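Thread amino acids onto this structure.
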């Protein structure tokens, strides 16, 4: 069995968050999606569990961070091209997200990112093939 990762993120409005990420091209596994949670398919064996804040709170005794006021995590996804990085950021902004930082071009590596509706930071990076060892 391959290892899987499930990143759990609190969201204020599950339906709005699902619509936001659907506009970016993500899909959801209905088997693990209900009124409290949505299982967003990020890639092979990679999932983001969007959890209504009250439901998220049942998994921890610590207070839930407000991602619009503080950063609790930076999520970074690889992309297939520079164009895909820019396309996803543009889609996120059109869907109601924000792009608070400028793109970063390091020659062999290109990155940009966006904040989703709840303020979670999603970084996107494209690295030139055969770039390992550069930098």
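Threaded sequence (135 positions):
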């Amino acid at each position: 069995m391959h290892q899987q990762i499930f990143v759990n993120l609190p969201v204020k409005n599950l339906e709005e968050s699902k619509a936001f990420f659907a506009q970016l091209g993500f899909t959801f596994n209905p088997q693990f999606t209900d009124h409290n949670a949505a299982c967003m398919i990020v890639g092979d064996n990679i999932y983001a569990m969007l959890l209504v804040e009250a439901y998220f709170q049942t998994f921890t005794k610590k207070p839930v961070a407000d991602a619009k006021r503080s950063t609790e995590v930076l999520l970074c996804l690889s992309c297939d091209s520079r164009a895909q990085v820019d396309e996803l950021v543009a889609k996120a902004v059109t869907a109601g997200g924000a792009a608070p930082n400028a793109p970063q071009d390091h020659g062999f590596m290109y990155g940009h990112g966006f904040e989703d509706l709840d303020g979670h930071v999603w970084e996107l990076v494209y690295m030139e093939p055969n770039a390992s060892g550069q930098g």
